[in-house]
């Protein structure tokens, strides 16, 4: 099993070789932090999007969908606070010439201290064996207590500095902690500066008379400006949600780690409108619901953790990240935020249009509060691929590279393969393929030996291989080979569609969420 940087490099290479993700504009030497999804990648991405949409919209009678425009009136971003507050505190290392987010450098320093705590826990567990009580050890061990106090102190200082936008203080904290450039080891830092992340462009054919507009840095604002439209046309009652998937754009200076942080990315967001005073209850409820959804993917519950925000965004009164253990460590995968009424009130003030809800039970109008769930589709894609990537040594000593993608997410559900290219086997195989295609993504493969074809399909994560042989012509049965176990069974070709749908559709997984 590969780990860390080694795993990420292998995943990047595998994604390109097997048609999942390509560097954008590669024939022109590429464009930094932009990627294209290939034939297998686009299918996996669509399946992830479909599973999110079904879980969020199809399975909730009080959540509906929306597809808002990428371009929005520039006043949108004034009302939302993005023109004023959508900044990152950046710092450069004078020796390596690399640029970093100051808060991320400090958070990574905190993670190193947390790693020391885990090291102490492992040592103690090994020493005391079955009698070891981790909770008691964490509360009483002097060394662990010292580390925990360090973390609390650093987090408190960082929160105050970020809240006060004290850029000089942030640099001082980095210097006090002795944080070095991860690349060069140098501690020769510039001052910290704020940088706005929005892309701007001009709307209109004549530049001098054009209106300045922005590529949206998030999809949420399209939901907020359509709140009244959706509520009235859908006759929605509080609480209710509006879901949306779509592209967002951020001029990330520090775009790295493959598709984890890009300048053009896709979000899957849901804004849940609630009665003021009930938002924290709904916030806690959605935290649990979203964790259940992630765990339903089957990537391993130990791969997730909840990280409560130290510094709250300008619109929030509670916020957390659902973090995933990527090849580069625990990083944000999804955010759950209690946004208060900041957005609707901001747009109401800026536009002069009423964005309130009349509650017939209370016989009053009020501005709803909002609980948001926001997940990066590209990050989810990376989580699934990196969890699925496996290099196995088999019983006979041979090796295979396999993507153990959950069957209901796999890009291709089955491949139909004639044993040979003669005796009517290709024709029969294509007949079976035609029967399957209306129900699922299936492929046909007749090149190379059966063994090589199995390995090729393992590498792209195809869960089932169907071999058509001479016995198929005699009695109408085929061999179905399962990817993960490599077990083979003989089944009737007439039953294939029902069998594969039962094994690969999303319905059985979705039903367990409620």
Describe the structure.
The protein is of the alpha+beta class and 514 residues long. It has three domains: 42-70 and 218-392, 2-Layer Sandwich (BirA Bifunctional Protein, domain 2), CATH 3.30.930.10; 87-195, Herpes Virus-1, CATH 3.30.40; 394-511, Rossmann fold. The chain has 18 helices and 24 strands. The strands form seven sheets. A seven-stranded mixed beta sheet has the order 3-10-11-17-14-13-12. Strands 21-20-22-23-24 form a five-stranded mixed beta sheet, with helices on both faces. The chain has a three-stranded antiparallel beta sheet with strand order 4-9-8. Helix 5 (102-128) packs antiparallel against helix 7 (142-163). The longest helix has 27 residues, at 102-128. The mean pLDDT is 91.
What does the overall shape look like? globular
Poorly predicted sequence stretches spanning 5 or more consecutive residues: none
Rounded mean pLDDT score: 91
The name of the CATH superfamily of the largest domain reads Bira Bifunctional Protein, Domain 2
- Content of β-strand: 15-25%
How are the strands of the biggest sheet laid out side by side? 3-10-11-17-14-13-12
The total beta strand count reads: 24
The figure for the number of domains is: 3
Distance from first to last alpha carbon: 34 Å
Identify the CATH class of the largest domain.
Alpha Beta
**Helix proportion:** 25-40%
Which structural class fits the helix and strand makeup? alpha+beta
From the alpha carbons, calculate the radius of gyration and give it in angstroms. 26 Å
